[in-house]
Amino acid sequence: MLDWIAFDADDTLWKNEETYLQGRAEFLEILQGYGLEASDIHKFDSFEVENIQYFGYGVMSFVLSMIEIAIQLTGEHIHPWDIQRIIQLGKRMLTAEVEVFPGVREVLGTLAAEYPLMLVTKGDLLHQERKFQDSGLREYFRALEVVSDKTPAVYRAILDRYGVLPERFLMIGNSLRSDVLPVLELGGWGLHLADHPTWSHEDDTLKEGVYQRYLEAAGIGDVLGVLENRGLLGDDRVD
Ligand SMILES: [Mg+2]
User: Fold this and answer.
1) How many Å lie between the centroid of ligand 1 and the Cα of residue 17?
2) What stretches of 8-151 adopt beta strand conformation (E)?
3) What CA–CA distance (Å, rounded) separates 49 from 9?
4) Considering the domain boundaries, does residue 71 fall inside one?
5) What string of DSSP letters covers 62-91?
6) Domain C-terminal end among 64, 79, 95
């Protein structure tokens, strides 16, 4: 029933959101030095989302957004030293150790024995390639696709490039909005990891009972069981 299985990376295979939460906390600390309150910084979230159209996803976009809002909120009084701190914060985020979730290797090892696996991730190209390398998970994957966004058109282009029919493609990820819904819309399979940490921008709602190829697991450790139950893996697999 499947020709390829694709995985998201950030917050699916390894920790990511935690790094951003720590980054936000440090940014708040810098701005508190200017008498700003935590409530002022909430503006940052909408600012960051607004900037995606210009800078895309990833740490570099996050850093530019922090600098831009710091200039605005301090009435252009932020000290160059603090801008330097924001840039250093970004560099630490870009070079942070990749922490793979427990159970990921077992899942990938089992699936890679039956299917070619693809990683589909959005963000800074250099950063995503480095994390892929540092994760030690490269051996399980036949393909890496770093994309600027995860829309149905982007998935369609990937499927065309690999010559895969949507109904024979499964995407697994923590984001309904980016990993699951666009693939379901094309007629593919989407498996949502419902309990993984997820940035609120990636939330979305699923219309109940509309998608026949929607699957859900609490976490990465439950993926094999869910696929076995649907006949996509193991002895009862349907080809
Ligand atoms: Mg993700």
Assistant:
1) 9
2) 117-122, 143-147
3) 20
4) yes
5) HHHHHHHHHHHHTTT---HHHHHHHHHHHH
6) 95
CA–centroid distance, residue 167 to ligand 1 (Å): 22
Exposure string (b/e) for 56-86, b if CB count within 10 Å is 16 or more? bbbbbbbbbbbbbbbeebbeeebeeebbebb
Rounded to the nearest whole angstrom, what is the distance from the C-alpha of residue 78 to the centroid of ligand 1?
Answer: 33
Whether 136 maps to a domain, the answer reads: yes
pLDDT tens digit at each of 239 positions of the chain: 899 999 999 999 999 999 999 999 999 999 999 999 888 777 788 888 899 999 999 999 999 999 999 999 999 999 999 999 999 999 999 999 999 999 999 999 999 999 999 999 999 999 999 999 999 999 999 999 999 999 999 999 999 999 999 999 999 999 999 999 999 999 999 999 998 888 888 778 877 777 889 999 999 999 999 999 999 998 778 88
Indicate whether 124 and 215 sit together in one domain: yes
The CA 173 to ligand 1 mean position distance, Å, reads 6
Cα of 9 vs centre of ligand 1, distance in Å, is 6
Residues 56 and 160 in one domain: no
Asked whether residue 112 is assigned to any structural domain, the reply reads: yes
Gap from CA of 171 to ligand 1 centroid (Å): 11
CA of 195 to the centre of ligand 1 (A): 12
Q: For residues 123 and 149, state if they share a domain.
A: yes
Q: State the pLDDT at residue 133.
A: 97
